[in-house]
Task: structure prediction
Amino acid sequence: MLSKSYWWKSTLAVALAAAAWGGTFGTMVSVGGQASSLALDEQRGVLYIANFTANRIEVMSLANNTIQTSINVAAQPSSLALSPDDRFLVITHFGNAAPPASSNNAVTVIDLTSNGKQTFALGSPPLGVAFGIDGLALVVTSTDFLLLDPVSGTTQELSTIGGVVAKT
Result:
C-alpha cells in the first residue's frame, strides 16, 4: 500500500506535468470587447463573433485570422446561430429582466444573402438560440421555448419552462 505522502506527491507531479504539457490552441485574435458566442460560416470562410460589450458582430476571416468587418446590432448580442442553408444569422440580445432593460430583450435576424436586418422584441431574456434542420430557430428564454421562422420573423411558443418542469 502506498503511503499517504507518496500518493499526494505523485498526484501533484501528474497534475503539474499535465499543466506543463498544455498549451495555447490556435491563434489569439483581439476583438476589442467581450466575445459571448461564435458561429462558423465555412461557405463564406468567416467566423461570426458576438461582441457583447461593443454591440456588434465581428466578422473574422478564416484565411488570415483578422477582423474583416463589423455589423452593428442592438445592445448586448449574447448568442448566435447560423441557419443550415447559411442564409440567416440569428442573434439574441440579453437585456436582463429588470425594467428598463427588459425592452432590450430581442432577437435579430440578418439575411446574409441580401444583407437585410430585422430586430424583434422578446418578452423575456433570451438565453440561447440554435437552428434545426427544418430551418427554424429554437430560442430559449428565461421563461419559455420559442420557434422562430427567420423568413417571416414570426415566433411560436412551444412550451414554458414551468410547463416542461410540470411534465417531468
Summary: The mean pLDDT is 86. The CA atoms of residues 7 and 13 lie 10 Å apart.
